[in-house]
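TA notes, week 10

Several of you asked for a full example with nothing omitted. So below is the full record: structure tokens for the whole chain, then the designed sequence directly under it. When grading your own attempts, check the secondary structure regions first.
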């Protein structure tokens, strides 16, 4: 079994309900959820919107490969009504499920990058991660989540 850390965010509709539904779907389709951070509210990142985001970090135990995990997280997004991820920029979204870490692995392929390449620049990822895994060491930055979160506190 692998430990997968996911970031879940939403800025449309009933945000708390969207997060709860996504966590339920992760439990059903990915594996046992071991920890979920408290809800963290943030401004949109990378685009302008009047809608604030709600975000959590989640730890799940899974027997899925990183690629299969990606397929399942994308399926969860579709089940919840997300049309598709865009490469043209960021937009409002009903749900976003990102793979942040998969054990301590580094994956670099055309479809998947682990750790998530921009996570250290995002308070809405680092602060919830530090809550559920403060001593987890980023495999390429070689800093703990607590150390990365310190710049946002």
């Amino acid at each position: 079994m692998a430990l997968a850390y996911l970031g879940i965010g939403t800025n449309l509709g009933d945000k708390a309900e969207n997060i709860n539904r996504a966590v339920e779907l992760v439990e059903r389709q990915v594996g046992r959820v071991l920890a979920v951070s408290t809800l963290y509210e943030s401004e949109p990142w990378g685009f302008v919107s009047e809608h604030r985001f709600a975000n959590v970090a989640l730890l799940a135990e899974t027997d899925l490969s990183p690629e299969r995990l990606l397929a399942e997280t994308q399926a969860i997004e579709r089940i919840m009504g997300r049309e598709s991820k865009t490469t043209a920029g960021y937009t409002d979204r009903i749900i976003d499920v990102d793979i942040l870490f998969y054990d301590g692995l580094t994956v670099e392929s055309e479809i998947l990058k682990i750790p998530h390449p921009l996570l250290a620049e995002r308070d809405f990822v680092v602060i919830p991660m530090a809550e559920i895994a403060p001593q987890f060491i980023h495999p390429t930055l070689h800093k703990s989540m607590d150390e990365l979160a310190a710049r946002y506190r």
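The two ends are 33 Å apart (CA to CA). Use that as a sanity check on your answer.
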